[in-house]
Amino acid sequence: MGYSDSLDKDIATCLYVGIMTDTGSFKYNSTTSKTHEVVSKLINYNIDNASIHDNIYDNSSSDKMKLLGYCLNEKLLIYPENNAAIISLNNDELKRFKFKKGDTEGIVNYGLAIKGINIAVLIVERGDVVKLSLRSKGNIKVNEIANEYFNGGGHINASGGISYVSVNETIIKIRKHF
């Protein structure tokens, strides 16, 4: 963008973090050769890309890891007829695992890691509202579902929304729109 002269190691690090997290560590289809060109220029500012990745992705509390295990072992619902997966958590479950902001970050993506699953939803009760994170593969437009039915929006394959009914009612509601 013509701001190369303004960059330093700290700014390059921040830009790298943004690009790395937005591209899912460079795995999404929207990651292009241009993305890698930009990142290669940022690395030339002597940023520590391995340390950055470690600090973002490999720095979890034991409570967060136990919550993830619980989600995968106890809360993962698979709907093969819809190629969909749902994980849900209520306030009591969050309390049980000493939830801290950010502890559910990325959990929705585990649904998409299952062979044949093209839509994944994480439903989390937060106080009086239920928050949804929707992810998809290919041309499945979860942003339209989030916008039309859950007061939300986002990108075609990554969106969020809010529900004002219970977690169980939200599961029923979202299943109607797969």
Explain what you see.
With 178 residues, this protein is α+β, with helices and mostly antiparallel strands. It folds into two domains: 4-57, no CATH class; 62-175, Diaminopimelate Epimerase, Chain A, domain 1 (Roll). The protein contains eight helices and six strands, in the order H-H-H-H-E-E-H-H-E-E-H-E-E-H. It has helices spanning 9-22, 33-43, 49-57, 62-75, 91-96, 107-112, 142-149, 167-175, and strands spanning 76-79, 84-89, 119-126, 129-136, 153-155, 158-163. It has a six-stranded mixed beta sheet with strand order 1-2-3-4-6-5. Strand 5 (153-155) and strand 6 (158-163) form a beta hairpin. Helix 1 (9-22) packs antiparallel against helix 2. The longest helix is centred in the first third of the chain and has 14 residues, at 9-22. The radius of gyration is 18 Å and the shape is globular. 25% of the residues are buried. The model has no long low-confidence stretch (mean pLDDT 93).
